[in-house]
Amino acid sequence: MNNQNIARCGWTNNNPFHIEYHDKEWGVPLHDDQKLFEFLILDAFQAGLSWLTILKKRDNFRKAFDNFDALKIANYDEVKIKELLNNSGIIRNKLKIHAAVTNAQAFLKIQKEFGSFDKYIWQFTSGKTMINKWKNWDEIPARTKESDAMSKDLKKRGFKFVGSTICYAFMQAAGMVNDHTVDCFRYKEVMKY
Questions:
Q1: From CA 97, how far away is CA 103, in angstroms rounded?
Q2: Which residues is 130 bridged to in the sheet?
Q3: Which of 61, 118, 143, 157 is 20 to 30 A from 104 in CA distance terms?
Q4: For the chain, what is the domain count?
Q5: CATH at residue 45
Q6: Are 151 and 32 spatial neighbours (Cβ–Cβ below 8 Å)?
Q7: For residue 1, is it within any domain?
Q8: What domain range includes position 159?
Q9: Which has the closest alpha carbon to 193: 102, 183, 73, 180?
Q10: pLDDT tens digits for range 125-171
Q11: Domain for residue 138, yes or no?
Q12: Helix/strand/coil percent split, the chain, to 5
């Protein structure tokens, strides 16, 4: 499906990593807690870096972080954190690694309170995908009132690296908003999920 004649969102730049992610995952409404947690953690690691950097290291992240099992990550000790800091296959940022542990603990508290993280996180879009009609990639905002509200609430609950821009990137990835441009072949496809 990486035919260059197919209309895609401009951010893919004909990059094979971007195309694979765009064509199969980005913008598909996601309701699996473990996958939502993975996206949240990866978006936090992406802060200040390109998404391409994260995509190239995603398999390494999955191995290093026990396939994003929040229960295991919430219990990481200093030995495990040191191991992660020495893992050249991931982003070795001490603050972000510590944030992953803190975020796992906060994630588990939300699951306990709401029954699932999915139920909690989708409340910021009233439980459904917000459909946008962007013609050009440069029209898409970096944040919205919904991502502002999500960021504020996540921070209140103890999450780190969850600014509004990171939250909006998460919302796009998890299909809480359809930000495929209207000419993109995925625009209508993701609405079928």
A1: 10
A2: 177
A3: 143
A4: 1
A5: 1.10.340.30
A6: no
A7: no
A8: 13-192
A9: 180
A10: 999 999 999 999 899 999 999 999 999 999 999 999 999 999 999 99
A11: yes
A12: 60, 0, 35
